[in-house]
Amino acid sequence: MDPNQQTAGAQQPRPPTRTSDSSPILTVFLPFVAIAVMVLIPSSSSSFKNSFSILHQVPEGHVGVYWRGGALLKTITEPGFHLKMPFITQYEPVQVVLQTDMVTNIPCGTKGGVMINFEKIEVVNRLHKEYVYETLLNYGVHYDKTWIYDKIHHEINQFCSSHGLQQVYIDVFDQIDEKMKDALQVDCTRYAPGIEIISVRVTKPTIPDSIRRNFEQMEEERTKVLIAIEKQKVAEKEAETKKKMAISEAEKNANVSLILMEQKLLEKDGSRRQQEIENQMYLAREKSLADADFYRVTKEAEANRLKLTPEFLELKFIEAIASNTKIFFGDKVPNMIFDQRLLGNFFKNVSRKAIEEAIAEA
């Protein structure tokens, strides 16, 4: 080869190497992608997410609790977004509002040795926010397993072992709710004061079929007895109602009779008073007539007494003689008629009282 050509070839510059246009973009976005991958870990692996995530969310009704190197931290966060150190700090949400724990399949033996099974018991409880750290420090995140699930099993078995099947299934079944609530709350108040038991709902336990049929027959017989008792009560009520109606009718008739009798008595009393008034009027009228007649007679007597004068008597004597149809003949007739001296002697010899009696008889 020609040396000049070699020199020319050596001095000829190489074409520049082309770098990719996307390398600056990848360089800028690579850290953001790494952070996004660490934040947005799939939720299917919650423990992995809680360990390696930086940004986490505390849901409403919960508080955030944190562990560092296995040690529980006193840091308690409110609902919302928060940051933590990945790989070092672990996070768990703890519910602090009302929650219902459902305890299922609780076998127990009664006092008589019969095995029964409570299929479901619901416990409504709440963990107070100010006791979250203390409760989790002593009993862990699953504190409700110790003080609710396991405690319910224990209390139910204690209750069954001290009561017979009749009592557990029928007689005192309505008291189990309150007894379980009180038993749970007593121990929680003593050992885990942050846990509040709101209520307990116990379902009817499952008993062997043969015993259940006996109870059903007993219930049927009891129902028949109750029906008979209710029928008897209804019959008694009907009889009592009829009796009250009869008494009411009799009282009504008696009241009507009494009213009619009082009315008749009032009529009789009115008639009697009317008769008394008429009698009084008659007596007053007769008395008035008698008084008037007495007054008339008295006045006539007084008038006659005033008339008893010699002149009037002489007049009457003359009128009597004049009206006499007999004629007397004799020598002394004129003397008898006209002799005033004899007439005066006659009046002297006759008393005034006799003359008044004679006049009154006339």
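[next item in queue]
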Amino acid sequence: MSPSLIDNYPTAGPAPTSSTSTKDTRPTIADQLIPTVRPSPPRYFGNMNTSLVESKFLTHPGDLGIVAVGFSGGQGKPGVDAAPAALFESGLLDQLRHDLGYNLHGHDAVHEYADLVPQHDPPHRGMKNPRAVSAVTKRIAEQVYAHAREGRLVLTLGGDHSIAIGTIAGTAKAVRERFAGRKEIAVIWVDAHADINTPETSGSGNVHGMPVSFLTGLARDSDEQFFGWIGDEHRISVSKIVYIGLRDVDPGEKRILRENGIKAFSMFDIDRVPIRSYGIGRVMELALAHIGADTPIHLSFDVDALDPMWAPSTGTPVRGGLTLREGDFICEMVHQTGSLVAVDLVEVNPRLGPAVDAAHDTVRAGCSLVRCALGETLL
């Protein structure tokens, strides 16, 4: 892993001039989107926070709320519930506390939510385990909200991607309350899959493929035990979600994306030939420009966005994905905006993988993504 240097970003005041300099100093989109690093100290660093980026929307940016979700009910492969413990055992919390200088809150245990999982949970509208997923995500929303309303950055470690119903709902509600309705969150969804199926368009019935449809209101149910607890205060606008890294999208999802004008960047956009190149840097500029510079951001990162070369231990791997460096860069760019308010890392499954070291490599990749999102720098 090689995070970007702070010196790569613009500083306050005019740049030094030189008669021999050939550097192009014209502002780019990234220059306009990424907060200026001023010579005076930012508002808050935490104990020894290495980030030099001033937070726009957090009153306590040095405080990090941790929600560890040991839940796998949104899909059918066991093991993803073991991811938070594996991330803890890898030393992630010590890295966040000692290397990045965060004050950690709520990080003592992995939540398994056994009290919320019914013994009998038949399908509803084709959804598998609907009562369990609904009840667990409601609890997660409450946990994330409790941190976010205090003005803390929130990190949720999953678990499968169905948990984003809860994480994003909790963030959305807290931001609306903290800013008296004047702000709504945007979501950057980094994933090989769109996860925007409705119960009716899903071929599998797995709810981890449906969270965005419930969060945007494209899928609804009046019964609280089937996600009826999601209210307007929990929802996000289709105009404030951006996908990055898509490469395995169901036919029904493609129709939903087109009909709703949802901004999405596939691997094709990232990999365009040089003469019409986007590349990950240009894609991030366009993604952030779409969101706007004055919008709180919730970053939801599915590790299967990475190519299986980098993250083999995940439930639905798809070849042809992001490199780890590209994934780290996405996280670094989002951090550099100063707009980040919440991060999810999901779908690490330590029990899956083609080789002995697969789980270790995937956990290590997940830790790298988290550290980059939370401000790790080389200098």
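[queue empty]
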